[in-house]
Structures are given as structure tokens and as C-alpha cells.
Amino acid sequence: MTLLMSLMRHVRLLSISFLVAISLHVMPCTASDTTQVCTIDANGQETCVQEPESVVSESNKKERICLPDGHCWDSLDLALVERFNDQTKATHVKLIKPVPFGEAQQVAGNDNAKTVQVLGETYEYMVGVYNNETTKSFRDGCHCRHEHCAFWAAIGECEKNPSYMLLQCAPVCQTCHQLSFEYRCPYDKNAPMAWGPGDLNKMFERITTDPFYVEKYEPNVLSKPPEGPWVITMENVATEEECTKMIELGAARGYERSQDVGARKFDGTYDAVKQDTRTSHNTWCVDECYNHTLNQNVIKRVENITGIPDANSEYWQFLQYEVGQFYAEHHDYIPFHLERSQGVRIITVFLYLNDVEEGGGTHFTKLGITVQPKRGRVVIWPSVYDDDPNKRDPRTHHEALPVKKGIKYGANAWVHQRDFKEPYSKGCS
């Protein structure tokens, strides 16, 4: 019976979202401090009644929980429940609006006692979070985003699956501070970068003049300084077998509608949004796809061409364009990356995985250059300036022209100033 009562108590508190913001305005006092009790009705009218001396008993002299309007309770739990249920009194007391922190929790599995214990610990933890002024920047986003968060915490998922649990179930893992992107993903502005001033030109000059690259990849310079930014193509970067396998790997992962960067989310990451200006489908080559031998062969060639470690590259974005699909003019540089661990995107390597019957070219809108898809061909261009490789070069705006006949398959790699894959694994990219 004790366990059942405890369970009901904690589940009820969770179901009313633990109105813990009120605790910021709850203060201990004795009955002798509150001999005049005041209430405020829905119309804002205050009524105060002087308590007779006889009301002040020994039991009332113990520490109680009181609000500034004179309402007192024997416990914080009673205060929270009554304040939630009574919508007619004290509606004009200046309280911070109570903020729910998540889904009502289900108690599942065999270890109910452990789940109940987690709920109780979560309650105490969140009261502390809302009483701490230093948590203001992230506490409103500290929610349990799934009804089984408490159960998962009880069976050890906070430790086993931290990339999900510490953010999506932060209250039960007691990791609200992890929602502060600056805390979770500290940015070291002095960390070494792939490119300094002058390195961009050096890379392109190397791969367009060195006999090894000239003979192996047949580089074609479409634009170069001083007239414009570097834009080049290279042939046979991937074999027919490798291209076919990459298309198969993409199909196995499943293509979904391509999305662009949206608004900042509660944890400092950014949402993805569908746009009418981008109608292709894509998927990401991670896990088994990334580790496949044929895919790794291509990655090693790209790494050799750029001279930048694969760790700095995002995972391949596999793309599928059907007839009529396109990606309107855009730029690959994302400003908020400048103060992220991985740094900005400095270069794009786009690999065509098949020949396209008609249309589907990559068009550089400010340069008047269009590159037609051809299996095994890459087109390479920078997103930054040579003399300031952290600053966006607007000249490399581009678009994917509509496919007129056939299907276009491609693989897109964005290379960053610093290691991308390590921050990505921690949810910090």
C-alpha cells in the first residue's frame, strides 16, 4: 500500500507538470508571521482576515510554505496541488508562469519501485533547478519528451544512451545543464584549423598542376583567381562499381524529402524544414553505409585530393532528383558554424553517381557556369575566401537545375575547418 500511495503521489505530480516555477515564490514562515491571511479573488479584490490568537497552536508554529499573498500550506506538495486545482484565488499574485517540463510518465516494466524512485528524485531535482537563478537560460526547455523517460532512466539508459537521454529526458537524468549548448559543446576558438590564409589557393593549384592528379583525375578549371573563385571538375574519382554501390546504399537507407536549416531548438541545435525551393530527396551515409569498403575507397580518394582529414568532412549526403525536381539558388556556408567546434564549411565536393539523360546540372548563378552530371565526376568549389577562410565567399552561390529526363543521383561532402565527426557524435555539430 505504501508503494501504491507513493506511486500515485508522484505520477499525479508529474501529470500536473510539477508546477515548480511557483517554488521560486514559496518561502518558509511560522504562523506568527502570518496572523493576517489575505486572499485575492479573480477580480483582483483582496480580502484580509485577522486570525484569532486561539488559532495559533503549537502545531502551527512549525515551518510552513507560504506565498507572498498570505497563503500557507503544510508542505510544498500541498501548495502545488492546491494552486493547480484552484483557479479562482490569487490569480493576480505576481508569479512566474508555471512551465510544464514534459510528458506525464508511465510506470512500466517489472522494476516499478525503481521507476517510482526516479520520479521522486526527479521532482526534488527540478525544484532545485527552478530555484537556481543560474539555470534561467535553459530550464524552460528541460522537459521529458517521452512518456517512458523515467522508466528508461530506471533501467540505466541515461548512461547507456546518453546522446538521446541527456537531452530528450533531461529531468530524469538530472542533466538540464546539458541543454546549454555552450556548456555541452564548449567552443575553443584557438583550436587548429585546416586552412589559414593562402591555403585555399595552394590546394587548388596542387590538384590542377601536380602530374599525379592531372593524369589520374583530368582536372578541368572552370573558374580561378583573379577573375573569380576556384571551380573545377575531376573525372574518375569513383568507379562504376563504387557509384552503383553508393546508389544502392542510399536506397537501402531510404530517401526522404530534402530539408534546409530552420530555427534554433531548445538544445542549441537547429531544426530542419522543408522548402518549396528544394524538392529533391536525400539520405545520410552513416553507420554501415559509411563503413562499407567501396564507400571508404571513395572517401580516401577525396581525402587525398583535398589534403584535409576525413574527420573534417560531413558524412556523404546522398541525393536523388527525379524529373522536375531541383534545388534553387543557395550557398553552402552556414553562419552559426563559425562558433561551433567544427568551424565553417570551407569546401564542397559533389560527386555525380550516374549520367543524367537531360538536365540536372549544377549551375553557379553568379559565374555563368554549369556542370553536367557524369558518373564518377566531382565538381569542387570553396565556400570561403582564400585570404580569410572563415568568411563566406558569395560568388559561389549555386543551384541544382531541374532534371528533365531520367533520375540524378549524387553524393555531397561538405568539408569543415575542424573535426566534424567528433562533435557530431556528441550532438554538438
Automatic annotation (TrEMBL):
GO molecular function: iron ion binding; L-ascorbic acid binding; procollagen-proline 4-dioxygenase activity
Main location: membrane
Signal peptide extent: 1-31
Full protein name: 2-oxyglutarate/Fe(II) oxygenase
Membrane-protein topology: Single-pass membrane protein
Compartment annotation: Endomembrane system; Membrane
Organism of this sequence: Nitzschia inconspicua
Pfam families: 2OG-FeII_Oxy_3, ShK
PROSITE patterns attached to this UniProt entry: FE2OG_OXY (PS51471)
